[in-house]
Amino acid sequence: MTDFTSAFAPASIGNLAVGFDMLGLALTGVGDRVVARKTDGTAVTIAEVRGLDGEIHPYLSTDPKGNTASIAAQALLSDHGGSFGIELEVHKGVPLQSGMGSSAASAVAAVVAVNGLLDTPLPVEALLPYALEGEKYASGGLHADNVAPSLLGGLILCPQVLLPEVVRLPAPNGVKAVLLHPDLQVNTAHARRQLAKSYSMQQWLEQQGLLAGFVAACAASDIDLIRNTLRDVIVEPQRSAAVPCFDAVTEAARRSGALGCSLSGSGPSIFALCVENDARNIASAMEHACRVQGIDCQSWVCPMNAPGAHIEG
Predict the structure, then answer these.
(1) Are 89 and 45 in contact (CB under 8 A)?
(2) How far is residue 12's CA from residue 269's CA, in Å, rounded to a whole number?
(3) Distance between the two ends of the chain, CA-based, in angstroms?
(4) Domain(s) of CATH 3.30.230.10: residues in the chain
(5) Pairing between strand 85-91 and 44-50?
């Protein structure tokens, strides 16, 4: 029986424009890694948190009550652990406040790593409620649009009313996601507090129609319907002004053939969905538009069926 595991959890795109708090997509090429070791006792501790540069992270806490990884791990261990504790090492690969599910990736990687140390590991789907405990600490709400795709991979429909059940949606054939991360930060909890508390029936009906149409479009791999439904009429207009390169980047993406383009989560990251053959050109156009605004950036091109979290080695 092993006393040591390492797990990787990918970053994710939350909301996907049409599905505020209800749709999420796993990414490839970027994520968090958590190493878990058995210790004496029954508590979860954090040995260290390292940042993108490999150095000790200057901001994230090693207090087990103040880190999404340890909060999620402790929830799992309290319900299913044995006569041992856990020490975690958190290696951040997702930038903080990036709109890429940074807090979710840490929570997911932690529960997957700890699950690998249990005498009877749980099915991966059963880990969702525990990862959500960590995410809830960071964002102040119960929403799974980053946690669920990071854990399970692919395109996930996860409205709060169904939790802990989620729905894996079919990935549309021939479509890829481009994610651009500008070198900016947006605090998710603050961004949520700034949203309007009520909306008109017309707005609600329009957004619900777009969500339903987008889900149907993915199931049918209907490119034209994806193009006609991938937009946000409620949340994006309230948040886009906080990202100074938003207009330039989305215009560049659409000019280059994107099916749709919007904020990833609360931003500042911006995603586009596109036909596979256009993906690299769209990524380059988005990067160029961002840098013209004087903002450094990086981008990733990802499939719509990217894998979720997993034990390494």
Answers:
(1) no
(2) 11
(3) 15
(4) 4-169
(5) parallel
Taking every pair of Cα atoms in the chain, the longest distance, rounded to a whole number of angstroms, is 59
How many helices and strands, by DSSP H and E, does the chain display?
10, 11
Summarize pLDDT for 242-291 with one digit per residue, the tens: 999 999 999 999 999 999 999 999 899 999 999 999 999 999 999 999 99
Tokens found for residue 48: 């260290």
Which residue(s) pair with 301 in the sheet? 178
Question: Under CATH, to which class is 175-303 assigned?
Answer: alpha beta
Long-range contacts of 278-286 (CB under 8 A, 24+ apart): 279/176, 279/178, 281/256, 281/257, 282/178, 282/253, 282/256, 282/257, 282/258, 283/178, 283/180, 285/252, 285/253, 285/255, 285/256, 286/178, 286/180, 286/249, 286/252, 286/253, 286/256
Confidence (pTM): 0.94
Tell me the C-alpha distance between 29 and 56, whole Å. Answer: 22
Residues forming CATH 3.30.70.890 domain(s) in the chain: 175-303
Instruction: Of 137-141, 213-217, 309-313, give the lowest mean pLDDT range.
Output: 137-141
Nearest to 303 by CA among 268, 267, 269, 279: 279
In CATH terms, is domain 4-169 a member of 3.30.230.10? yes
